User: What shape does this take?
Amino acid sequence: MLVPPPQFEDRDEQELLLCGPGPSNILPSVRKDLTKPVLSPICDDYFNVMSDIRTGLKYAFQTKSELILAMSGSGHSGMETIITNLLGPNDTLLIAKRGIWDLRAETIAYKHGIPTHITEVPFNATFSFEQLEAALKNYRPTALFITHGDSSTGTIQRLEGLGDMCHKYGTLLLVDTVVSLGAVPFLMDEWGVDAVYTSTQKALSGPAGITPVAFSELAQQKINRRTHEPAFYFDVKLIAKQWNCFEKSKNYHHTLSPPLIWALRRCLIELSNETLPKAWSRHAQTTALFHKMLTHYGFEFLIPKPEDRLATVTTVKVPKGCVDQDFMNHIRYKHGIVIFGGLGPTVGKALRIGIMGVNSNEDVVTKVVQAMVDATRNVVKSKI
Assistant: This one.
């Protein structure tokens, strides 16, 4: 044989407390459902599970839209899906840029030949509606892309009323809710959102790799009259037939991962059992406690305005005298807790701590704060 059989060593990893911006730890019930039987993509049981998921997603997104399903892939698959199904080279995309995910949207648009315009704020701020309306009025774009909760900056963008503003200028509203859905209020229909995607590995406490998306009636009309064609793998016209969005077509498009559809189904069951208002309240109360404790111990928030701070991912400035990687390593190897450094515009400026999903509770907050205090004392001391 040209290539001999490799020798694999055992890799028994210790389970850590995952308190970065994602993934979060998996719910026990989700872990159990990941071992459910593999389903054939052409059997009734498979389509029944997909139907359950669509019902759960309508609740999670708060929409009555029928064009709602899940993509095979990470959150970026959702981003590419909503952008490329709604826009082509003859359209224009306005991007409200404040973090790395808006930059990724710009990159996707560029690769598909979609013209873009940018309106921007500093990474530690959010957009005023006055700034957004001025850009809408000036450019009259086909769509506006904006991130609800930004895990690279730790900010939350106000959306109520933005859909109506966009529609006034003939613009569709596209929203990233990867790190916000299930943890903070999001009302797709009430807020006039036309396309949205999220991920399972954040506040839903599931595994990565499957990405829910939803489109409004207005977005569906745009898709039906589009003159461009998106990639086969991301074409919702085709995928909707597999998900039986409009009729029991039961078409085969591709084989979704059976463990991941079982996992997403369980995530949505857990969210429905808790209810959205209680999940939102739990995250708000837990994060308020976390921020109170951080303030008590002298940590400095990267985001100056409390109303701009995201409930799921908190960004704090790297303590003086610390190197961010040394700080994270101390917490990882002494306390078994994972937090992240900055990403995109916050590299070298911040630590990103995620308190969300199954980890949004007082016990986790206490463990994380104690570890951060210990790291500050020991990492600074070791540098003296």
